[in-house]
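[audit] Reproducing an earlier prediction to check determinism. Same input, same settings, fresh worker. If the tokens differ from the archived copy the diff job will pick it up downstream; this log only records the rerun itself.
[audit] input (313 residues):
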Amino acid sequence: MIKVEVYNSEKLKLWNDFIRNSKNGIFMFDRNFMEYHKDRFTDNSLLFYDEEKLVAVMPASIKDGVLTSHGGLTYGGFITGNDMKQHHMNDCFMALKEYALLNGIKEIIYKHIPHIYHKQPAEEDLFSLYYNGAGVVKIEASTVIDLQQPLKMPKGRKAQVGRARREGVSIKESNDFESFIELENQVLNERHGTKAVHNASELHLLQERFPNNIKLLAAFYQEKIIAGTVLFIYDNVVHTQYMATNETAREIGALDLTIATVIEQFKEAKKWLDFGISTEDAGHYLNEGLIAQKEGFGGRTNIYQTWKIILEQ
């Protein structure tokens, strides 16, 4: 019999220890990361016990009777230990549905963690979703490079990397999140009418809390940042959380050199480089120019899945 409890601050250490030792947890599920934007979301994270043993947790937020795992994170869902088996996961889903019905929750939006982020196989939740009648509501195309078996870059991309080097572009780790986010927001505003999810202060805060997991790699030209990427670094994956480049950088290949540097720097230590999604409108629109840029580095598609469970009240 699985028992469900709602997270509170007294369980912070228990939660973080479980995430750290899980087979599919990532640093974004650490409470010190999740709670940097706690004012924007109503947290409704859950802990699942089999008798007295904690067997799973689920980062979640709630709004208007909809439980989402989690509204402020790219993905979420059940985080489990190495001893999680399929029938236990089915029991966890049954307990989740019972909890939801008792608390007037009409829908559960479930963001599956892509398999490349797993330390051990951890797709018990996908079967349980299907088994419980959930439906896929969003498929997003992310672009991923296998760092240990990379595909060759095309000649044009290599030429741009060479040009950036000849022009004197240097790639360095930096803490100048202000200049980078200003550049990023210019790009996002021009192309999509949006801005970055994080501001410079938040990136400084998160980088201070997670110095080994968050880094800014910037391309400097004539002592100014003209391109760069904010990296989120996981056990098996390096994720380009943001990439930005101005017109000068595009002309001389500064971003190309930045990404080539990331590949070279992490090819021994990590398995995957994830460029993130190139889709909009819940996956119904593919930005072909953006995905072509990422594929030009040798990336190929890995999907992000979002499911929905509609509960019968």
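[audit] rerun output stored. Observation attached for the diff report: Residues 86-102 form the longest helix (17 residues).
[audit] end
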